[in-house]
Amino acid sequence: MWVFTYKFDEDGLLYKYKARLVVRGDLQEDWGDTYAATLAARVFRFLMALTAAFGLKAYQYDVLNAFLNAPLEKLVYVQTLDPYVEELGKVLELKRALYGLKDAPLLWYKYLKETLIKLGLKSVKDVPCLFTNERLIVFFYVDDIVVLVHPGHLDDHQEFERRLEAVYDLRKLGELKWFLGIRVLRD
After folding, report:
1. InterPro entries, from UniProt (predicted)?
2. Which CATH number describes the domain made up of 2-25+34-183?
3. Which of 30, 35, 87, 148 has its CA 20 to 30 A from that of 48?
4. Stronger pLDDT, 8 or 131, i.e. the higher one
5. CA proximity to 156, closest of 168, 175, 181, 138
6. How far is CA 161 from the centre of its chain?
């Protein structure tokens, strides 16, 4: 099934249409655990206060087709919309998490968490989606990643960005302007 969405810029103007092939997760028979942690709004507000208080830089990234990066933990077969393939009585085996799968958000969360740990970050205890090391604070909400860094340590940020780009196809959004529908203004 195809899902069509619209993307708006920071002024609320339409700038892009998206089409995404998805799985009908509502028809999925066995999916197990599906809960994926997300960043709490109060944690985001705290991080923005910290950014302002210490003059940190905030850089934002979007992981393109994020769920498709996550490997599946069990076999998943899907029927196709292609009448020719269905006529032959064939199904497809998924190799990666596809949008619409019940456990796709959890699989992506686990995969991103594993990546951040491999890149030298540590998970903050009892605060999902927040990771740190000596120089960086990294938080995310699904596929939107934000890196906070002191202006004196921009080389650490650039190295982290380079290593993250080696793993994921990223869209660099520059300095943080919007997150969770909240506009971020700096003066």
Report:
1. DNA/RNA_pol_sf (IPR043502), RVT_2 (IPR013103)
2. 3.30.70
3. 35
4. 131
5. 138
6. 15
